[in-house]
Specification:
Blueprint lengths: L1 H5 L7 H29 L9 H22 L3 H25 L8 H23 L37 E4 L8 H13 L2 H8 L3 H14 L6 H14 L4 H16 L11 H10 L3 E5 L4 H9 L12 E3 L10 H11 L6 E5 L2 H9 L3 E5 L15 E2 L24
Helix pairs in contact: 2-3, 2-5, 3-4, 4-5, 6-10, 8-9, 8-10, 10-12, 13-14
């Protein structure tokens, strides 16, 4: 039971766990303990000088502080939401008591000073902690080791767990959530690059690459006068909101490349993926990657994966620059033209419905991949669904595959 509640801590970044411990500790041992003591000794009206509604509010915090702490320890975003609501209302109530009732001064109220300081800490760190929580960090109950039923386009289990596909010449794969862990991207790679944007600009200042990066960010933001600090701020905002902006992806790829080169970073690939790529290669089916990450970042991900160098199992890569946005059908038509493979003989694998819909609109075959720990659930409307690639063996087209020479791994 305890492992099911706190097991997420083994997957979360250390700073997230540390902040949750601080939040919960203050809520329980400072907030809830004080209000509970007041309730025991003085009932629902411990402060005779305060109006009844204010007494009831503070008394209720004995419950709400404890509930927020419990949710936080369980790794739930609702705990951050409740904590922020508590801090906002409690801070407003205490400021009202100090100035509206006691006519006191902030510097004469040490309790108000401590409460304000903690509220500022919550406001500054809470959004980042909330973002990190809920990304597949929670342990699920053990699943029986039997094949899970696949789902058809109508959402019903398919007989025998099969996915019906027409002959395929090329498979195009997404990375995040499909062939590799989305959690690894959001909790390892994104923070790694975010912390180094400013240093990257400082190191390249005045160089041609610095100028082109700044111009690309200005064009993407529509701010032609954006300076270096503004560009870094835009990159931070895009990272935090997971915006698929081409300038962001290009710089992330360059920064990650250095991390891969010195062994700090590695790409995460699910255990069954190398074998699946090898099977498709042996069957004469092409294997390409299409991701919002830059082509360079994709190559490094597979070249420095937890299963070693897998680039020999891939024929090429496409990104936002070479193909276009992943939610637009025209991007998939661009890839079809580059590969010289008919749309109906191309299979696209992704965990995102909008991408699958766009590929289907371009005439591609589609299969959704939803891993067992995906918080979105096991079904994707309009597409057959697999839990992994272990049993995906599309029938090869008699005509074989035609890899795009310009996209081959060097």
């Amino acid at each position: 039971m305890i492992d099911r509640v706190t097991g997420w801590m083994r997957k979360a970044p250390w700073w997230v766990v540390a902040m949750v411990v601080v939040y919960a500790g203050v809520l329980v041992f400072v907030g809830a303990a004080a209000h509970l003591t007041d309730l025991v000794h003085s009932g629902l009206h411990p402060y005779r000088w305060a109006p009844e509604w204010l007494n009831l509010f503070w008394s209720s915090l004995a419950v709400f502080d404890s509930l927020a702490a419990l949710l936080l320890v369980g790794g739930r975003r609702a705990g951050v939401d409740l904590m922020c609501a508590i801090m906002a209302t409690d801070l407003a109530a205490n400021w009202y008591a100090a100035y509206g009732i006691h006519h006191s001064d902030f510097f004469a109220e040490p309790g108000l000073q401590r409460l304000t300081a903690f509220a500022l800490l919550v406001c500054a760190t809470g959004p980042f902690v909330r973002r990190a929580l809920g990304r597949g960090l929670h342990l699920r109950p053990p699943r029986p080791r039997v094949p899970l039923p696949r789902r058809t386009r109508g959402g019903a289990p398919a007989a025998g767990g099969a996915v019906n596909l027409a002959p395929v010449r090329t498979v195009v794969l997404d990375i995040e959530g499909t062939t590799g862990s989305a959690d690894h991207v959001h909790t390892v790679l994104f923070p790694y690059a975010r912390e180094r944007f400013a240093a990257w600009f400082a190191a390249h200042r005045g160089q041609a690459r610095w100028t082109s990066a700044l111009d690309d960010i200005r064009a993407a933001t529509g701010a032609p006068d954006l300076d270096e600090s503004g560009a870094v701020a835009a990159l931070h905002a895009w990272t935090d909101a997971d915006v698929k902006a081409a300038p962001l992806k290009a710089l992330q790829g360059e920064i990650w490349a250095a991390g891969y080169a010195d062994g700090t970073l590695h790409g995460h690939v699910y255990d069954e993926v190398p074998a699946a790529l090898a099977r498709w290669q042996a069957a004469g089916i092409g294997r390409h990657v299409y991701s919002s990450a830059s082509v360079s970042a994709q190559r490094h991900w597979f070249a420095h994966s937890n299963h070693g160098d897998l680039t020999g199992l891939l024929d090429g890569y496409f990104d936002l620059t070479t193909a276009g946005p992943k939610g637009e059908p025209e991007s998939y038509r661009t890839i079809s033209r580059a590969l010289e493979v008919p749309p109906g003989q191309t299979l696209f694998l992704s965990d995102v419905r909008a991408e699958l819909d766009a590929a289907a609109a371009a005439g591609w075959q589609t299969v959704a991949v939803r891993r067992p720990d995906d918080p979105r659930g096991p079904s994707v409307d309009g597409h057959p669904v697999l839990a992994d690639l272990a049993r995906l063996d599309p029938p090869p087209h008699p005509g074989g595959t035609t890899p795009a020479p310009s996209n081959r791994t060097p």
